[in-house]
Design goal:
This protein is mainly α. Helix content is about 80%, strand content about 0%.
Length: about 180
């Protein structure tokens, strides 16, 4: 019976999603800083999962897929706050948004809340210029061409700075997590 297989598949997907609830909600809450907003974004992620499943799309790594959707929803939420309040975004908040992208494939057994916390600590050590580059690229979603105009730097320099900053963040997070995992 084809309907039964689809129901089993949806039940399995629901179970897997609910297993991610705590870590996903903690990640979102760390990004937006307000539980109700985090809960709303969490629900939007679930709706995206349902829509993708309804369209027959296969999601091979539900955790990674949900984190990517959550990151995009958080960015949209932060942009709406910026527009409504007309305030500068704190570098710490912007960098928190990068949590999923920077540490997605790293140290799988470490809880997301801890990864985001470590990422925030690493970001506090970045130079102001590196923070600016991340803000332009990930929060304002500027293209490299737009960034070159804004920064008055050649595209090659912008690519290089962005790449070095991401690599430095990834390395900082991974080293810190490894040190915490294996204290000497």
């Amino acid at each position: 019976m084809p309907g039964k297989g689809r129901m089993d598949s949806m039940e399995k997907l629901s179970r897997e999603f609910m297993e991610l609830r705590y870590s996903l909600l903690a990640y979102i809450n760390a990004c937006v800083g307000h539980y109700q907003n985090a809960e709303d974004i969490f629900q939007e992620v679930w709706l995206s999962v349902l829509k993708a499943a309804g369209e027959g799309r296969e999601i091979h790594n539900l955790r990674a897929w949900c984190l990517k959707v959550a990151k995009n929803r958080v960015m949209r939420h932060r942009r709406s706050l910026l527009v409504s309040r007309r305030e500068e975004v704190v570098a710490e908040d912007i960098l928190t948004l990068l949590g999923g992208a920077v540490v997605e494939d790293s140290v799988e057994d470490i809880p997301w809340e801890e990864r985001v916390s470590v990422l925030n600590e690493c970001m506090k050590r970045l130079r102001p210029r590196a923070l600016e580059i991340l803000r332009l690229r990930y929060f304002e979603s500027l293209s490299i061409d737009d960034m070159t105009e804004r920064l008055r730097k050649p595209a090659q320099n912008v690519y290089l700075a962005l790449s070095r900053t991401r690599r430095w963040l990834r390395d900082c997070v991974e080293k810190t997590l490894r040190r915490q995992e294996n204290p000497v």
